[in-house]
Write a structure and sequence with these properties.
By secondary structure, the chain is an all-alpha fold. The protein is about 65% helix and about 0% strand. Helix 6 runs antiparallel to helix 7 (about 135-145). The structure holds fe (ii) ion.
């Protein structure tokens, strides 16, 4: 499906909502004494839609920066107190029953998956010999935003997308495959469209577009390969089993990154200990 057709289907606005708890935490930090912008940036990074908004804002011509900013901590210090207050005021907040979503789906599943993928992507960048030249902090935000298309699809398609999500989980197949079959496009198409429309840094657009190895492109490029492998590790953590890791992870991506399977399992075991409070 062509870009224009997807845009037509989704309309002009992409108002992906944030989680109220995260917004509250940032408000508390900004209202409290001596909040550091590093702390605020880390709190923003607990919410992928809000992170995308912050990066969109600081990378806009308004700030006139010579180099694009990827790090939420750096972005928070550039936006400053007033910029962040404005961002919070304008951010749409999730108003449905968050714990249950559409009766059966906990929307925080999306947040947890992205937060964990971000951490694993950064760690993987540190340990993978084939990731040389890539920065762990940059890969953190790539992991965080790679699945932003899922947030858009959930927001726009609701129940129909949850059905696809649950089918992918039950059958343990790539959700992108089912999305294409049912909707004619994937969360990768949508996420990249959003990242482009919001003029996010090209690095993020690339990770978003290619992290599920469409046309074998993750096998050729270490950046989406890291996000792909991180995503698969997190998937195994979520399922509590590594059974399908090899089947679902292209061997060429692992070769490109030059990592040992034992390193990946150790990394996964450490990530599984992460506590995420949303
Ligand atoms: Fe994905």
């Amino acid at each position: 499906m062509k870009q224009a057709e997807i845009e037509k289907h989704l309309g002009a606005q992409l108002n992906v909502p944030s989680l109220p708890k995260v917004i509250e935490r940032i408000r508390d930090l900004l209202g409290g004494p001596g909040a550091s912008m590093v702390e605020v940036g880390r709190a923003v990074a607990q919410d992928p839609p809000l992170t995308a908004r912050l990066l969109r804002s600081v990378n806009s011509p308004h700030y006139g920066l010579a180099e694009p900013i990827l790090s939420p901590e750096h972005a928070a210090s550039v936006a400053g107190f007033r910029g962040l207050e404005n961002l919070l005021l304008r951010a749409p907040v999730f108003s449905g029953p968050i714990s249950l979503g559409l009766g059966r789906f906990d929307v925080r599943t999306l947040w947890r998956h992205s937060i964990l993928t971000a951490r694993v992507a950064a760690e993987l960048t540190r340990v993978a010999a084939g990731a040389n030249g890539l920065e762990p902090d940059d890969m953190h935000v790539c992991g965080l935003l790679a699945d932003i298309g899922h947030f858009v699809m959930f927001d726009r398609m609701g129940e129909a997308w949850v059905d696809v999500y649950e089918r992918a989980e039950a059958e343990d197949v790539g959700i992108d495959v089912l999305e294409r079959e049912v909707f004619g496009f994937t969360h990768n198409d949508l996420g990249a469209m959003m990242a482009k429309r919001w003029a996010l840094p090209e690095t993020i657009v690339r990770a978003t577009r290619f992290h599920d190895n469409e046309n074998g492109l993750a096998e050729l490029d270490a950046l989406p390969a890291i996000v792909l492998v991180a995503d698969r590790i997190v998937h195994c953590i979520e399922r509590g089993s590594w059974k399908s890791f090899q089947d679902r992870t292209p061997a060429a991506c692992l070769e490109r990154l030059d990592v040992e399977p034992t390193e990946l399992e150790a990394l996964g075991a450490r990530a599984a200990e992460t506590k995420i409070v949303l």
